[in-house]
Structure prediction request, 464 residues.
Amino acid sequence: MPDRVVEIKESEIFKLIDKNRALDATYKLVETILETTEFDELTQKIADIIPNALGYELGILALIDHKSNVLKKVSISKGMGDTDKQAQLEEFFGDLTIPFGYADNVCVQAVETKKQLVSPYMWDVFKPTLTRQQAESIQEITGTKSHIVTPLFSHDRVIGAIIVSLAKEVDKVTDFEKEMLRKFSESAGVAVENSKLYTNLKRAKEDLHKAYENMKVLNTLKDEFLSVASHELRTPMTIVKSYLWMLEKQKAGKLNQKQLEYLNKALVGTQRMISLINDMLDISKFERKKVSFSIAQINLINTIKDVLSNFDVRVGEKGLKIEFNSPADEILVDADPEKLRDVFTNLIENAVKFTKEGTISISIDEYEEFYRISVRDTGAGIDKKDLPKLFHKFGRIDNSYTIATDSGGTGLGLYIVKLYIHGMGGMVGADSEGIGMGSTFWITLPKNKIKKFGVSLRQVEIPV
Prediction:
């Protein structure tokens, strides 16, 4: 009777030992999950927990590779202690893969049936990738007598398997140990899946960063090329324009009407090319951050009147009317005089270009911190869905706005307007009720503060 009491106590102690190992393994797994996000590091730690915390001889983590339709080893435990034996194991397993076509393989059966399976023979677990002789050699090296394959779950989906080799016989493996491995695999599966997602996102982010850096380099090279090419093109184009102008003025002899007509078209085309080259140079300077603004106190009224005077001939030829209702003789703003002239020239030129008949009107509205200048026309108009495309580089609208003219344009003018106005601290925009209903392009400029606050420095450089 006393002997029987001692026997019961010993069995209870062994159960407590197993439970303690399970709790230790679970704790270490949770600790690993919380500490580790890198996929390779996490999978290795999960494999190492098996011998270190559970006291088993070998642990292997394998994941499903859907592209190749195989079960692929991703980590093997490093708890052998014997360096030579560990090296032998790693050489045997190497890049181990188990094809799903082999129905008599225990790993394949466990994954496909989603059930835990146990076998006394390692060859049953790793055939046909390993030969029987190799499997028996590994079993001898590790001293194992049973092998448990537990499906690795992530949210009710099998993503792989945990393979555990034990030194005890199959019939000595307890139900508690099997259940413990099932619970262990569920937690490990979620951790592996999350880690894979995190690692993939991190790599994608790194790839995007590299691509972005490469794009920046390519963009810089492109800008430098455009700058050099534009400089090289501008000189010969200016020379061509000069000789065409002299021919048109008949400096080299009289020309007939047809010849003058051809020359005029050549001059218009040449001027368009020179304008394009100048626009490209301006944009190249902006994108290389080599543009600065000389901000000064200027009279907005005088600037607009000066620009309008340059359009008298063209407006007269088209039979258009320009109205500028100035609210005062002097409206002071802080802006770059030359760049502001370019802005108004571009906006009024667009209005003249796209208006066949009617009126172009310029108005100024005052707000608390800024003035809003609007250029309205009764021309071609813009489809509302095309409005967001304006003010972008090469932002041509071929099916609506630019259809009204043969010249079309490059889409650079409004982009430069936006860059200039933003550089001077203002905003830009456009409105239209639709095709054939005219358009309104507007800009804002900050009110004059140089004079208001009595600043002695009348001009400052603002790099963009």
